[in-house]
Amino acid sequence: QVQLVESGGGSVQAGGSLRLSCAASGLTFARITMGWFRQAPGKEREFVGGINWSGSITGYADSVKGRFTISRENAKNTVSLQMNSVKPEDTALYYCAARISREYVVRDRDYEYTYWGQGTQVTVSS
Q1: Burial of 111 by CB count in 10 Å (0-12 exposed, 13-18 middle, 19+ buried)?
Q2: Are strands 3-7 and 78-83 parallel, antiparallel or unpaired?
Q3: Strand 10-13 vs strand 120-125: parallel, antiparallel, or unpaired?
Q4: Cα separation of 79 and 96, whole Å?
Q5: Coil, strand, or helix at residue 23?
Q6: For 33-50, how does the pLDDT look when each residue is reduced to its tens digit (9 = 90+)?
């Protein structure tokens, strides 16, 4: 049974930092691309960033580029999202997602990911 469990969400002031983690089980972690998505109230779910199976390729939404960084530790079956210089518009429910793939690209459409976590809330106050 595949499980993705996010952690690290919380409340932070604008300009601060937060680190989200996603722990995966039930699959061969080194064979999957991991993505982070977010959904704010009243808005559609959107791509934040992703990292390919080897960690050699990352991709980010323009809105977070230069502020957020994704990394992974295949030995620990975890992927992290380091969020720096956060803004109130980063407030959302953040999800990690998995796509079984050994590609050298990062997909940015939610329908391309098979497995999803339950999400962790991030709230940024001004």
Answers
A1: exposed
A2: unpaired
A3: parallel
A4: 9
A5: strand
A6: 999 999 999 999 999 999
d(CA 71, CA 100): 17
What sign results for the dihedral spanned by CA atoms 96, 99, 100, 101? negative
Q: Examine the pLDDT at 30 and tell me if it is beyond 90.
A: no
The CB density around residue 52, as the number of other CB atoms within 10 Å, is: 21
DSSP symbols for 36-105 = EEEE-TTS--EEEEEE-TTSS-EEE-TTTTTTEEEEEEGGGTEEEEEE-S--GGG-EEEEEEEEE---SS
Question: Hey, is 30 helix, strand or coil?
Answer: helix
Q: Residue 37: beta bridge partners?
A: 47, 95
Place of tokens 């001004």: 126
Tens digits of per-residue pLDDT, 48-102? Answer: 999 999 999 999 999 999 999 999 999 999 999 999 999 999 999 999 999 998 9
pLDDT at 108: 97
| 8 A C-beta contact, residue 90 and residue 59 | no
